[in-house]
């Protein structure tokens, strides 16, 4: 059994990227994994100040909801980030959290696999590339971790358009195999 932390960064309820994350969670639970689901929608996560104090203390000088998320990420075997695509990039909420997870860099973090779930109104294959690359750049900074998989749900703009989309089954299956 693995500890899986899923972080949804969409600001909307019933969002398309969150539906992918929930499908991944369903598959992971079916496989017997322990799943923790966090949405940033109702969290307070301030911008990183770039002071790098966290590199010495393994804690951020800012105390907000990122503290608890960082602790969960530290002990998770698998991280899953779900984001809508805005202007061909990850949400600002996710980028802000990734910056605030910088204290993990000098720790003995548990995660080895990272997954990315993305959604966008456009459905061309290239649409998620920058968002995936941004998360992959973060993963590259963690020598023991690797990008384990991605799922893209294109052609969905309004909240709830995910219903019946084939990417949901792909995310569910990825969760089963995590």
Total count of helical runs of at least 4 residues: 6
Tally of extended strands? Answer: 5
In the CATH hierarchy, the third-tier topology is known as Rossmann fold
| Cross-sheet strand order for the largest sheet | 2-1-3-4-5
**Highest-level CATH class:** Alpha Beta
By oligomeric state, this entry counts as single chain
> Rg, please?
15 Å
The proportion of residues forming helix, as a percent range, comes to: 25-40%
Q: What is the typical, i.e. mean, pLDDT?
A: 97
| Total number of domains | 1
| Estimated share of beta-strand residues | 15-25%
CATH homologous superfamily - what is it? Answer: Flavodoxin domain
Distance between the termini: 10 Å
Short description:
This protein is an alpha/beta fold and 178 residues long. It has helices at 16-30, 54-57, 66-75, 92-100, 129-140, 167-177; strands at 3-8, 34-39, 78-84, 113-120, 146-154. It is built from 6 helices and 5 strands.
Reconstruct the topology from this structure.
Layout: E1 3-8, H1 16-30, E2 34-39, H2 54-57, H3 66-75, E3 78-84, H4 92-100, E4 113-120, H5 129-140, E5 146-154, H6 167-177
Parallel strand pairs: 1-2, 1-3, 3-4, 4-5
Helix pairs in contact: 1-6
Question: Any overview of this molecule?
Answer:
By secondary structure, the chain is an alpha/beta fold. It has a single domain (3-177), classed as Flavodoxin domain (Rossmann fold, 3-Layer(aba) Sandwich), CATH 3.40.50. The chain is 34% helix and 20% strand. It is built from six helices and five strands. The protein has helices at 16-30, 54-57, 66-75, 92-100, 129-140, 167-177, and strands spanning 3-8, 34-39, 78-84, 113-120, 146-154. A five-stranded parallel sheet has the order 2-1-3-4-5, with helices on both faces. The radius of gyration is 15 Å and the shape is globular.
